[in-house]
Fold:
Amino acid sequence: MGGMALIPSDFEYHMRRAGEHWRLARASVSPEKRAMHSRIADAYIRIAEKFWDQERIAGLPSTGGLMRLQ
Structure:
């Protein structure tokens, strides 16, 4: 699995979903589909940010920080 945890944290899960939608947005031919996947990715990032803050406050180890994909 390349060093990934078998059970991702909530932050990791939502960042992975965001990454999937960024890839779909880049691959989309239709501007409407591109915009839709970009909006979904942004929403997943906003959710991940909330979990990132909770994990930092709880003192959990860092998973690398936030990064917006574009």
